Amino acid sequence: MVIADPARPFLQMRGIVKLFPGARALDGVDLDIRPGEVHCLLGQNGAGKSTLIKVLSGAHQPDAGEILIDGERVTLSHPVAALRHGVATMYQELDVVDGLTVAENIYLGHELATAGFSQRRISRQHTHKLLSRLGHGDISPHQEVGRLSAAGKQVVSMARALSHDARVIVMDEPSAVLDSEEVANLFRVVRELAAAGVAVVYISHRLEEIRQIGDRITVLKDGRTVASGLSVADTSTSELIRLMTGRTVEHVFPARPAIPADRRPLLRVEGLALRGVFSDVSFEVRPGEVVGLAGLVGSGRSEILETIFGARRATAGRVEVDEVQLRSGSVPTAVRAGIGLCPEERKSQGLLLDEPIYRNITLSTFSRFAHAALLDERTERAAASTQITALDLRPADPDRPARTLSGGNQQKVLLARWLVHGCRVLLLDEPTRGVDVGARSEIYALIRELSAAGAAVVVVSSEIDEVLGLSDRVLVVSEGRIVHSGPAAEIDEHRVLDLVMEGSAA
Amino acid sequence: MSEQSVAQGIAPGQSTQQPAATTASRFHRVFGGSVGRNLGLVIAFIALCVVGFVTAGDRFASVDNVMTILRLAAVIGVLSVGMTFVITAGGIDLSIGAVVGLSSVWATTLATQTMAQNTHWIVMVGVGVAVGTACGLVNGVLVAYGKVVAFIATLAMMAGARGLAEMISNRQTQIVKVQGFLDFFRADLLGVPVLVWMFLVVAVAGWVLLNRTTFGRRTVAVGGNPEAARLAGINVRRHVMYLYGLAGLTAGIGGVMMLARTTAGTSTHGQLYELDAIAAVVVGGTLLVGGRGTIVGTVFGVLIFSTLTNVFTQNNLSTSAQAVAKGVIIVVAVLLQQQFASRSRGAP
């Protein structure tokens, strides 16, 4: 690796703090980027990587701390300001416009034009130069971007960054959408950029890649920098995992009661598959048991739950509740059988935000409170109120719109919905996402109570300590396959992270 | 959509800042909310009546004129009730005007009228309503199961139904010859035309359906968040199909009403009625994005437009001026809606 001027960092972030309602997303982050280096940013989900990128790209404003470029303090008040200072960002969801050509995409927002007429010929020439610099002179500037592969789109995105004379390019999990050959190509481009003095901030979950491409590493945990500027060559993998997982906040998990061994499984999943997403998923959950699915975003965890629930049609395998097989791909069938799903995205998948709490609670049961299709709102509201009290939902006003509730209370609304229904199998996707620390313990206790009352619970979470602390049994999912299955007490966070990353590196 | 949730959307201060929900405050919320929500419409309507009275005096305020206004409002009114459901669920139906024409033509073909004369005039009603419902269900199947965008599916139905009506009628006006039909529908009951009664009955039925039944609850859920409704176990597709069927049903009833009003069936009946219905629904306060609908608001929307037409006619003002006024009303209503919507988002 060529490091142009190792003595003097091009970009420095000092003590960056970013507050969100109810959470400190960033709580004092330091980062310094030298010209021509590949600087890797490591951290678990929720460590603050995405927020940090957004601060760096001008999409978020820090609440405290300073950003220095070439030793001068700057304010990146919006994305264009960041670009002017030479900081370009390539987001994970590539922000290219499919309907436009390569050249049009690269000069989007800063078109080369005279008196309003675009200089198509010149912009094509420039585009060709930029693409050649990236070693992709074979991509035609006329080509419609929608027809390019994910890797091609990435190159366009990089060329766009270069067209802004970027001196730092932030790449958020660029390898996630690429196959191994394309990854090799990406690395070549990254090395060439670095050799030309451009700094690359590289974010990836794959430790293997970081070994190959990175120069230095900064590790984030719980919104803080726990190690900065470590040399890749001198830092062991176990050391990195220790830095990523060492806790500052310990959650209190309820005790795991012993389950009588003679209980028959309530939920049985056998050889379940969804083409291109996951395959051969088999497991059982007994009443009173909590099974956790651990894995990275995109590993197929959420899709497994949705397929069990019938929201996606399985391409193979079967789901049984109480030894009765369910028809695949039908949510009403699953609900009738007593399965309830609390989806990952509460707001977009779970709630009617402008409707009152009680109607959100009875969304899957309101027809029970009707005589000849006429609703009896008094009994409906009473049933909802019972659950509001039981789950200690606050504020306990059934008529408030769901929008006004905090994340934890919105989660309780979803749980209440399935409790009114009398569900015996609960599928919980990220039950504590967006829930603050205090309310988390409450949700954990609630999940245990439900399982103690005879429910079979499946929990998906990105936070490995949560899966381990909450579950009786853990299934580790990687790239759509279950790579490990065993009691939660017999595995630790390092091992899970190891399994998850081994699977991804394939 | 319930009275109270709408009230909270429009006036969050009334309910969300009172954590203790006593019986008295709940009563106040339901009652005050309903009135409060429609207050703007009521004021607009009264202002329009005052203008009418001042400019046209007794010509405007006479019982005869009021019945004229209501009679003209009746067909659009019935269509608007069906449209309220579709829009509340986040959809749109551009075909209902054309379906009015088709059902009026189908109900007055020689074959239908001969059969009606030999049996009972109710046959004509049955044919008209059945044709409308069938068209609506075709829309519904296309939108719900064929996953065709509602705008396109119903645009196709709009062209198709109008064309089919022209083919069946050979572009001729088909006079209603069944005297029993005319005697029934053109009569007055308790001094009020039967057509106006029909509007009233459809509006009340629509209100009950939207606010008091599981069908209405599903409609609001599907419009508010289709994914949440699906994951709660609601059969969203089937419900969407029913909704377009319902809009078709009201178009069929509208077709029969047109026969009564004009004593003839023709393929040109109901032209642009879909746009009048959408305008009335939106002005009434139903959100175009779905999730919130109000039948009372829709009725006021219909009355405001038909009164406006009447006031302009009474004052010999051109239909062009009337169209401009209509346009202004729609824009102002939607701007106000957006204000309320953003305010309810900002509520604590």
Which features would summarize this protein structure in a list?
heterodimer; A: 506 residues; alpha/beta; Rossmann fold; 3 domains; six-stranded mixed sheet; 17 helices; 24 strands; B: 348 residues; mainly alpha; 77% helix; globular; disordered N terminus
How do the strands and helices of this protein lay out in sequence?
The complex is a heterodimer of chains A (506) and B (348).
Chain A: E1 11-20, E2 23-33, E3 38-42, H1 49-56, E4 64-69, E5 72-74, H2 79-84, E6 87-90, H3 102-106, E7 113-114, E8 117-118, H4 120-133, H5 150-163, E9 168-172, H6 180-195, E10 199-203, H7 207-213, E11 216-221, E12 224-231, H8 237-245, E13 267-274, E14 278-285, E15 290-294, H9 301-308, E16 316-321, E17 324-325, H10 331-336, E18 339-342, H11 346-350, H12 357-361, E19 370-371, E20 374-375, H13 377-390, H14 407-421, E21 425-429, H15 437-452, E22 456-461, H16 464-470, E23 473-478, E24 481-487, H17 493-505
Parallel strand pairs in A: 3-10, 3-11, 6-9, 9-10, 15-22, 15-23, 18-21, 21-22
Antiparallel strand pairs in A: 1-2, 1-4, 4-5, 7-8, 11-12, 13-14, 13-16, 16-17, 19-20, 23-24
Chain B: H1 3-10, H2 12-15, H3 23-56, H4 58-61, H5 63-88, H6 96-106, H7 110-118, H8 122-144, H9 150-169, E1 174-175, H10 179-185, E2 188-189, E3 192-193, H11 194-212, H12 214-224, H13 226-231, H14 236-262, E4 264-265, H15 273-283, H16 295-314, H17 319-345
Antiparallel strand pairs in B: 1-4, 2-3
Helix pairs in contact in B: 1-3, 3-16, 5-11, 5-12, 5-14, 5-15, 5-16, 6-8, 6-9, 6-14, 7-8, 8-9, 8-14, 11-12, 12-14, 15-16, 15-17, 16-17
